[in-house]
Amino acid sequence: VEAITFNRLLPEPGQVDALELIGALEADDSAHPDRPYLIANFVCSADGRATYKGRSGGLGDDGDRAIFHALRERVDAVLAGTTTMRMERYGRILSKAERRVRRAETGRSDEPLACTVTRSGEIPWEIPLFCDADARVVVCSPSEPHVDTEAEVMWEPLDPDDPTPLTTAMRALRRDYDVRLLLCEGGPTLFAGLLAEGLVDELFLTLAPKLAVGDPKAITTGPPLPELQPLQIRWLLERDSSLFVRYAVTS
Ligand SMILES: NC(=O)c1ccc[n+]([C@@H]2O[C@H](COP(=O)([O-])OP(=O)(O)OC[C@H]3O[C@@H](n4cnc5c(N)ncnc54)[C@H](OP(=O)(O)O)[C@@H]3O)[C@@H](O)[C@H]2O)c1
After folding, report:
1. Using alpha carbons only, what angle is made at residue 129 by residues 124 and 135, rounded to the nearest 5 degrees?
2. Can you say how many angstroms the Cα of residue 15 is from the centroid of all Cα atoms in its chain?
């Protein structure tokens, strides 16, 4: 995996490497007693679109991919909505052996746990993730999934009448799987739900130097928050005209 360097504009100017920067995230010690420390990672176009022709892949560049993968390598678990998993055809979280080895060298499991939540129980069993014998996936859903998969699937029950299902799911991840640092990769519906339940600690946002028009989807979709959610910049990086902002979600 080649090193990808960024121009750091804030807090102090300099050159930084994505793996080094994210490998050193101090968030580990910040896990809440009853839920993981949660980082959301999104890319959007300069006109605020989270997808182009239905997918997010084309928006990001090498810098975005470097941060995406460095975050995956660093965290205990990766959470994505069922639609995102289906649309982006999720496979195993660390597909490159080199990344798994490097991660294991830091004393972590080879690969982060994959997690998803659903109320309907409609899980995209056909995606490569569930066909991978090495994958471990936590499914939070009202009914127990009964499907033969190559992947190891673990079930966390959700009460269909639970008014805060995501809080319940986050508690289970911390309690039953010792997930301290959790990366949410979207999509906009799940991210909005997590924000509404006050479960997000940081947002990593790539602002792609591209205009998309078309798809109206932003990085959040859902009813408005009761109040505007303030953010604070923790760092700002630039590479090839893309901007990479790390925000703290503040109370
Ligand atoms: N730009 C980016 O960085 C980025 C990142 C990720 C995704 N995307 C794009 O976003 C699109 C998908 O996003 P999306 O917003 O449509 O879907 P999503 O957030 O990926 O998944 C939505 C589904 O997740 C489950 N879910 C969400 N909130 C829940 C809650 N509070 N409790 C229980 N289950 C919950 C529901 O499943 P059930 O319906 O089964 O109950 C819901 O239908 C794709 O086009 C993808 O390419 C963009």
Report:
1. 130
2. 25
* CA atoms of 127 and 106, how far apart (whole Å): 29
| Whether 44 contacts 208, CB under 8 Å | yes
Is the CB of residue 56 below 6 angstroms from any atom belonging to ligand 1? yes
Question: 214 CA distance to ligand 1 centroid (A)?
Answer: 19
Q: Name the pTM for this structure.
A: 0.97
Compute the distance from residue 13 Cα to the ligand 1 centre, in Å: 36
Q: What percent of the chain has pLDDT over 90?
A: 91
Only one residue has tokens 């700002």, namely 236
Q: Show the beta-strand stretches assigned E in 46-159.
A: 77-79, 113-117, 136-141, 152-157
Confidence (pLDDT) at 151: 96
Q: Determine how β-strand 202-208 pairs with β-strand 242-249.
A: antiparallel
